[in-house]
Structure formats: structure tokens, C-alpha cells
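W.,

You were right to be curious about this one. When I first looked at the sequence I had no strong expectations either way, so I just let the prediction run and decided to look at it fresh. Below is the sequence, 388 residues in total, followed by the output.
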Amino acid sequence: MSPLWIVFRKELVDAVRDRRSLMSMLIFPLVGPLLVAVTLSITTEQLGQNRDVELPVVGAEHAPALMEFLEAHRVSPIDAPPELLEAVRTGDAPMVLVIPDDYAETHREGRTITIELVIDQSRTSGAGDRSRVRRILEGYSDRLGMLRMVARGVDPQIAKPLQVQTVDVSTPAKRAAIFLNLLPMFVLLAVFVGGMYLATDATAGERERGSLEPLLLTPVSRAAIVIGKWLAAVVFSAATMVLTLCLTLVALSTVPLEDIGLHIDVGASDVLCILVAVLPLSFCATAGQVLIALFARSFKEAQTYLSLTVFIPTLPGVLFGIKPIEPQVWMYPIPVLGQQALLTSTIRGESTPFFGYVLAALGASALAVLLVATAGRMLQSERIVMGR
């Protein structure tokens, strides 16, 4: 058999037998999708428009028509707590509606009525319910204003000389992509996390255990040794990425995004596009990890260095989240950034040119070859082999 194949099989068998290697490959695919599903479920629940909302009200008896309007829009008035400010401040009540005692008299006189909606803007929980109640109250105010104008013989359309009608050309899939921005980041993170432990153990770990020197004394070229270890890490990285993608899609299928008018439509062709876009990054990421682990003087030092690499796949996601940027040709050859652009387009349901995948694969592959070649040259140095 080829010496390269022997080294590759040896590293793969050792990794499979090592429980820590398996845990490093499995823990992220299991925890990541669960975190995504829980986060989106909470967001969907907060933004849901079809569920009943309880609204604590002070002075509900002064505005029976308003109470009926709220109930018609699935907002149920309830008794407010005694200390309403403290209740809102502590989160016991998400909001409290305060109706003044002179509500009926002010309404009969046709004057402006001031009601208070007590909220705590610093609390994210219940933000969707607060926005919904505010819109309902504004709708009641518009309705009341039109009735007053009609009672005075004035056409209500006079007060609205301009009516803006919004035409939304986005698809449910594109709107859902706003909530799926975590998916590309988790898939790219899986690439870096999956092969990290194997790359560290196969280089800095073997050197620390004293098994690297006997391996180098065998009639196997240094290049074959480095490539064999690198390919084993690639297998773990790619397997972690595929497992993360599959479990994330399964978790997303359980989230009721339809309740807020969104729809996830990731078919087999989309999954294939994601795999084609991200798999070349496994070669690049693990090559960099092998190089860094060889440079480190101990297993612990290698772990410290490699733990910092997990921030690399998060940077494009943060950039795209803070300031959305349309994918451009110059992005595709840049590893991680190109994959982020391709994944974003795929999730939004937009067509991506074929050369985008080609450029992304070429960019990641070229950098992987450069990093592996550098690692092979480093392994020629006695200082690197001895960890000095």
C-alpha cells in the first residue's frame, strides 16, 4: 500500500478509537442545531401574531368600547397588579395599559385622550406583544378619529391626502433567510471545530508523547506523513460539517416559522450547493490547523492557538449581519468569505453563478496546498520535530 495511505489510515483509526476525538466531532453537531432551533422557536413565539395576549389594564371600566376592540383582536384585558410600575420593572407584567378616569368625559367632548402604555424597553421578552398592542391601539385611534370626522360631516379621506401602499416583492424564503443567518455561521464553524482535535493530537500530541520521532525514522517521506495526517483531519472536519448541516435542517423543520408568515424551503439541490461550497474549506481549515499545531511547542499551546481560529468563520457572518453586503465576484476566491457569500445566496433562494463555486473551491484549495507545503517544510526542521 502507499505510505501516504498507511499514515492516513493509521491516523483515522487512532482518532476513531479515541473518545475525545469522537466527542469533538459529535458535540458541536448536536449542540449547535439545538441552539439554533431553540433560538428561532423563542423568536417565533415572541413575533407570533395569531396567539392570545393578556394585557393588564388599569381603568378598563372607563373605556368599554376600547376593551371590546382589544378582545376582537385577541388581546384579553386583565386586572393590573397593585404596584404596576414595579411589576413592569421586575418583569412580572410585560406591559400595563393605564386609562384615565376622565376618559369618557374627554371622549364625549371630542378632545384628545391620553392613555399610558407602561413598558420596560430594556427587556427583549415580550417585545413582539408590545409592538402588537401598540399597533392595535393606534388602529383604534385612527378608527375613532374617522368616526369623529364623519359625525361632523367631514370626509375622513381629507385627512389622508397621501396613502402609501407597500408592495413586498420578497418571497417567504427570502424573509426566512433573515432568521436563518445563524445557519451559515454554524456550518462554517463545524468545518473548523471538527478536525481541530485530530490535527492537534496528530502533530503536537504525537511529539509530546514521543511517537513522532519514531514515525519520522520510517522509510516514509515527510510530505507523505504531513499529507496523511492532514487528510485524516479533513475527513473529521467534513463529517462534522455534513452532520451539522443535516441535524440543523432537521431542527429547523420543527420550528413553526409559518406562524409569522415565513417558510423554509431547503431542498436537495440547495443542500448539494451548500456541500459543494463548503467542502473545499475543510481542506483549507485543517491545513492551517496542522501548520499551527506543528509550530506550537506543546499540546496545550497548540490547543490555545487553534481555539482562536474558531473566530475566523464568525467574522464574515458578523459583517454580513451588521452591514448586509451583496455577494460580489471578488469575495468568492477568499476562503470563508466566499463560502459565506455562497451560503447566504443559497439560503435566500437566489441563483449563484457556477464560476462562484469554482472560484471558492480554487481559492480554498490553493491556500490548502500552500499551507500543507509549508507544514512539510517545517517538519524538516529539527527544532520543530523536537519542539524547541
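Here's what jumped out at me. Residues 3-44+173-386 form one domain. And, maybe more interesting for your project: The longest helix spans residues 222-252.

Coffee later to discuss?

I.
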